[in-house]
Amino acid sequence: MSISDDKMKKISVVIARIFLGIVFIFSGYAKAVDPLGSNYKIQDYLSAMGLESFASVALVAGILLAAFEFLLGVCLLLGANLKHTSILTILLLAVMTPLTLWIALTDPVSDCGCFGDALVLTNWQTFWKNILFSCLAVLILLWHKYSPKLFTQRTEWIIAICAGGFSIMISIYCYINLPIIDFRPYKNGTNIIEAMKMPGRDEDIEYVADQLTKLSDGTLTQDACLEAVCQPQFHLPEKSVKEILTKYMADNDREAEDYAQRIFDLLSDKYKTVLIYEKDGKTEEFSLDNYPKDDKSWKYVDTKNEIEKKGYEPPIHDFTMEHPDDGDITEDVLANPGYTFLLISYRVEKASTNKRKEIKAIYDYCLQNDYKFYCLTATGLNTKEMLEYKVEMGGVEYPIVNTDEITLKTIVRSNPGLVLIKNGVVINKWSNKNMPTFTEPLENSPRGQIQQPNDRRVVLLSSLLFLGVLLGVFAIDKVVANFADKFKLGKEN
User: Fold this and answer.
1) CB atoms within 10 A of CB 480
2) Domains of the chain, residue spans
3) Helix/strand/coil (H, E, C) string of the chain?
């Protein structure tokens, strides 16, 4: 039984709008819960384009962009005002697609931030994603009449206003506090030491070599060995490991440790060597396979190594604490079995100082209870900015160490923000606006236990809150409409 052309168009437009709607809701929500993350990403864009003077509007622009995407997503999903929604979607993509093409070609930023830190795509993946979405948006515009209309025009406007307003409220809440969902590698409960480890240590190689030995003596089948080697914590590509296992079994002089090392070498960056030669005033690049080795008319100029494939990178790979007197104290701080407070300020000259009394009280509390306290910043320790900060804070007695600025922005979305760790594990975080007051020792306090929110519960509650707001506005609109009808009817009578 064939499907009619109209029915096919109806199915296609419904699938397209539902898919696009879910993606835009996810994209807008991921940005809305992390407004400072969007702010930093937009500032990166502006810096790459030489427009640093507009950096002051980045935060507002990020919040509005998240609200716009969330609004479009809700309207697409519900089929509300589909013609205008699809036009706005096309206009948004008409701006974003050329921008992402430029990013893919020039690579000024590592990722576009389309989905915040919830989902990281390569720049080329982002560009092709926008091409696909543009095609779907055009399809929806052309066939929007085939999508069933579920709401009146007034209700459709209510849906749009509620969606945009809800996203803005979420962003404001997360800006004042901290992101209600933390997609970054320093979330509560993270063991920083474990997250910094690169697979391929001696014990890892020893374990894999043992599995290979079991494979060669028949204790393990190749599939069982593959499963044993490709443990989640090793992040090894199964296909490549399988090829190495096959070579291992075919090698008469196989050495288990040598092949174990080869397996972990799969995680390393892959480079290609480029040889530059000159002839008749023109330079040309060659590989190791085709360079003019025996041609004396070519003159060697230079050699460069270009990265061909990026290897595995641990979730946390750039966390260091450089003390002015003791040097790198990262390992000592993370290995401390007691509690350690980290005051995070990516730039002290940009930090809020309105909580200086509370910070001083927390430092005094640490001295009383034998807890460690450090301030982490990217600002130079002997700069004018640092001296001015110390004066403005009313004198600073706690140790200040240097850490990479991007790392500090990633750890906590506040300047300053407070992080509590123990044994290298993130226990809790606080924003500057919610700087806590401590009275009892952390060993006897709930604050000394890992405060790890349930992300699924947060998504469910925020979804229910949005539906509640939507239904509440619907109810109010209905009451107002009925009252207006009665008033009009009474006036006519």
Assistant:
1) 10
2) 5-176, 198-265, 270-309, 322-448
3) CCCCHHHHHHHHHHHHHHHHHHHHHHHHHHHHCCHHHHHHHHHHHHHHCCCHHHHHHHHHHHHHHHHHHHHHHHHHHHCCCHHHHHHHHHHHHHHHHHHHHHHHHHCCCCCCCCECCCECCCHHHHHHHHHHHHHHHHHHHHCHHHCCCCCCHHHHHHHHHHHHHHHHHHHHHHHHCCCCCCCCCCCCCCEHHHHCCCCCCHHHHHHHHHHHHHHHCCCCCHHHHHHHHCCHHHCCCHHHHHHHHHHHHHCCCCCHHHHHHHHHHCCCCEEEEEEEEEECCEEEEECCCCCCCCCCCCEEEEEEEEEEECCCCCCCCCCCCEECCCEECHHHHHHCCCEEEEEEECCHHHCCCCCHHHHHHHHHHHHHHCCEEEEEECCCCCCHHHHHHHHHCCCCCCCEEECCHHHHHHHCCCCCEEEEEECCEEEEEEEHHHCCCCCCCHHHCHHHCCCCCCHHHHHHHHHHHHHHHHHHHHHHHHHHHHHHHHHHHHHHC
| Interstrand relation of 372-377 and 339-345 (parallel, antiparallel or unpaired) | parallel
Residue 62 has pLDDT above 70, yes or no: yes
CA 370 to chain centroid: 35
How do residues 419-453 score in pLDDT, each as one tens digit?
Answer: 999 999 999 999 999 999 998 999 988 889 998 77
> What is the separation of C-alpha 402 from the centre of its chain, rounded to a whole number of angstroms?
23
pLDDT of residue 490: 66
Report the topology of domain 322-448: Glutaredoxin (3.40.30)
Summarize pLDDT for 112-153 with one digit per residue, the tens.
778 888 888 888 888 999 999 999 999 999 998 888 887 778
**pLDDT for the residue 124:** 87
From the number of C-beta atoms within 10 Å of its C-beta (0-12, 13-18, 19+), residue 120 rates as middle
